[in-house]
Amino acid sequence: MDARFTAEQEVIRRTVRELLVKRCGPEDVRAAVRTGEGYDGGLWAALSEQLGLPGLALPEAYGGVGCSVTELALAGEELGRALAPSPLLSSAVLVAPLILALGTERQRADLLPRLASGRLTAALAVPGPALATALALTGDNGGAWAGGGRAGGVQARRVGDGWRLYGEAAQVLDGHSAGLLLVAAHAGGYARSRTLLFLVRADAGAGRGLVRARQTSIDETRPVGRVQLRDVEGELLGKEGQAGGVGQVGQVGSVDPVGPVGALARVGDLAAAVLAAEAVGAADRALERTVAYARQREQFGRPIGSFQAVKHRLADVYVGVRAARSAAYYAAWAAAAPASGGDTGDTGDGADGGERVGERVGGLALAQALEALRVAAGEAIQLHGGIGFTWEHEAQLYFKRAAADEALFGPVHRLRGRAADAAGIFSDGRRDVRGERGDG
């Protein structure tokens, strides 16, 4: 594995940062979150049309750039540094890979080019506060999170040749403004329950049973909405009875048939890698601002950054951020790797040759990154003194980002618990030891 980034990847990082420095300062962020959509439409158009961020990890055949998750994570890191509100996470990271993996050729040809261009935004709607569960980040996603055959969640019922959806999903990222909703719903009743994904076009559903409203969120740069479905027509993603489509989640152009639950789990690992990079970018920026302030702020006739206690605290933050960055980069590389070993040659993502096995380490990287961001933001507030607690200062925005991401995709201890369960660190290990003792 070559851990160095390619020249193309460095260009992506640099151009995204240059654009955000010009157009996404603290005041721009505050103005953007006050809009109805919750983000700056002009900035989103620039990110889409000039830089092509929504289509970075999509195949060129569908209007994308044909890069990997690594490039998407690098762009996410720069967006995290600026706390830039945008529908990139909901559209390009959560929805587009699911359409690529499960959609029919007609659905992919119709939707992916528009998503890649940024003209169409999308949101993944799952019932209740179950996004982390549906993405298999905090536990097995094969359970009853889509309603379980009982009241609650979102239910799908076949009517003639189509489907009708009933129910409500809250805390949907960009759910109040997205032009396309991908709804996870429960179908088949109690006896033959299963989770399916349905496409709901916002323009067709508006006024016909689709009710959406923006909700108050901890972090305004992560706008969320409530989606109510009252006998709304939904289009099944993919063909009924077909496991999946072409195109593995996180890769370009490979064949990997998976069902909705399996595809959601793979998208969860991809999303966790991008989210980890975002959190690392935010933590790094919070640390930079704190170090700069510690060099300027004087107490007892000397900068507070010269005090040993402050140095130690900032050094701990620095180590945490660096470790989280390494984990996030590895998670992005692993998410782009094939699901089974094989000599892939030059993949263009900074890793050349060798046996590459698709490891699902995104949740563990996300846990480390969220913890690093929480500590960095907390120290930023503390070391800025009285001004760090004020609404006018930016330190509180980074702390809110850490809290909101942990609420939506965590918490940290459950992310780590899921990784430990998947690795069999506790349960399987104890059973093996007991078995060996019993056989002896």
From TrEMBL:
InterPro entries: Acyl-CoA_Oxase/DH_mid-dom_sf, AcylCo_DH-like_C, AcylCo_DH/oxidase_C, AcylCoA_DH/ox_N, AcylCoA_DH/ox_N_sf, AcylCoA_DH/oxidase_NM_dom_sf. The keyword Protein biosynthesis does not apply. Belongs to the acyl-CoA dehydrogenase family. This is Acyl-CoA dehydrogenase. Keywords: FAD, Flavoprotein, Oxidoreductase. It comes from Streptomyces phaeolivaceus. Residues 273-420 form the Acyl-CoA dehydrogenase/oxidase C-terminal domain. Its cofactor is FAD. SUPFAM superfamilies: Acyl-CoA dehydrogenase C-terminal domain-like, Acyl-CoA dehydrogenase NM domain-like. Residues 6-118 form the Acyl-CoA dehydrogenase/oxidase N-terminal domain. One of its GO terms (molecular function) is acyl-CoA dehydrogenase activity.
